[in-house]
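batch job 7 of whatever, protein = Transglutaminase-like domain-containing protein
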Amino acid sequence: MDMLLPGLLLGLLLGACGGVGEPEAAPTPEQIARAICDSQGEALSLTSLEAAERGDYLAEHYDLEGVWEDAAVYTASGADVREIAVVLMEEDDDANGLKARMEDYLIERQGDFFGYFPDQAKLLDEGRALVKGRYAALIVCEDMPAAEAAFYGCLEGGGAAPASGPPAENDGDAGFKPPNETDMTLYDTEAIRRAWESGDAAGLSERDADILARCREVLDECVSDGMSDFQKELAIHDWLVEWGEYDQTVYDDPDHAGREGNRDPYGMLVGGYGICLGYATTFQLLMDLAGVECITVVGASFQSTSDHAWNMVRLDGEWYCVDPTWDDPSGGAAWASPSAVARRTHRYFNVTSRAMRESDHQWDETSVPEATAEAYRWDGVSKLPGT
């Protein structure tokens, strides 16, 4: 009996597409897309783009060129990466060209979520661009085998396409080239630091005065007399991870603008949100005011396809790398134990430069020191250094 179920399911999908028994009636992209959606069960909830929106979406996201006959696009929103698109092109070569651009889109989009939303990045990594004749499809969903079976089943079989595999590794010889897709200019905190040292905030802009006021509140809460530099760093790091949240609104539009101030300490300290540059510059400023030597590294991640920023801290004369943003990932399991959460929020706390390379961070290595020390590495649960 169990052996009949796969055939029965495929038969239902073919029937939904008007496939077997009706070879003269080619399925529409909408029929194929609906069959793919149905293959995912009731848990899949996506929005179908209206005809007026599809052309702009296809051009903007898949760089669709030339003439296409018909299309269906189902998308989620925000930090939900699930997506199903089926496009009928005029020629087979056009469909193959679109498939290649869809694969580029998957890689680029994975870079947007890599490190920040691990579960969503995994879905993108497992997503596929498929082609059969004049049909090209992009599919990002939980049950990819069922989705692929639905796509090829609607087109009367055709077999599974070969796996595209992961993105190619950088050859390492070309040197670091920043993506420059996001403005990674560091916020100027000099006036704030001068006001902190002098105790006179009269000359600050309203924005900088608000930042300084929040810095005083945070440091009063986190830092006390007699703390070592490591203790100050840990307290500030943990406060930032607990307080802040990644600005998910950057995923709501292709420009990735997000909320105002998400790239500087104002958004994080006053609003409680930021992207990587907001986390890094906030950590930097708090460490500066706490008297701990710190720098901000502007680099990249996901094989230099996504702009990224993190920090380095000097303790007892030796440098360590800290990535507060990736220590605050979204989408964690609610059932995780306290120790699992603690490890998760200290994965990139005082690690070496080598560890950063191995976790897909890239940067101009001639512009910052190499971090090799491990004395103050802490995973969140082991014995604290210096105790």
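notes: The chain has two domains: 4-154, 190-362.
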